User: What shape does this take?
Amino acid sequence: MATAVLHYKAAAVSDRGRKRPSNEDAFGFSVEDGVFVVCDGMGGAAAGEIASSLAVDQFLHLLTGRGQDGSTSMPGAAEEAIMAANDAVFSQAQQNTRLNGMGTTLVALAVHESHVWVLNIGDSRCYRLRKQSLELLTLDHSLVEEQVRLGRMTRSEALRSPYKNVITRALGTQCRVTPDVFGHEAEPDDLFLLCSDGLTRELPDEMIAAMLANDLPLEDLCTRLVDAAKKAGGHDNITCLLVRAVA
Assistant: This one.
């Protein structure tokens, strides 16, 4: 169990990549309130951009400046904020036929002192680098990843599958949604990465770990990750949000 009093630093970079005409990713954070979120929108026309931005805005609105009382209230409040974000996206899609079917992934980090909660819907991910070791803290809600977990598909088959873009859970596509919630204890110098799949589709975990191990400012690390993903193909929008625990 971590005993040090921890503070957090954060930085983020988002890029449309080399193939997409616009950026449907969105991110936001409040270091003061201990809330960090990345969303990857989907839908025709501008719907993906609307869904991701609306989800980020709603999530942050409900979790910032509220004077939350720490470890007992934060996980429940974060889940409620996700429900509210889902309601906002779903309601707007119902009211505007041009936005029918829009939705977004969501991955969020909520912290209070050494307590950390990771929440996710879809295939945006959260990793933790601790002592040079990279650990994935989320489970993708995607068709191929669920087949891999069930032993019905190998990792190499998943990478080649024509269904690798199919996600099985998204925010805003249905009237109710259930996020995964994982609790952890942070240690000094832990580095958390929230990212859209535009990063993880292009770069293997080993390369991400090696790049994060560099002793550089967080914004420089974000920029290097995004640039590497673009160099590897940049087929999708790319967003990296880094959060470091500091004693």
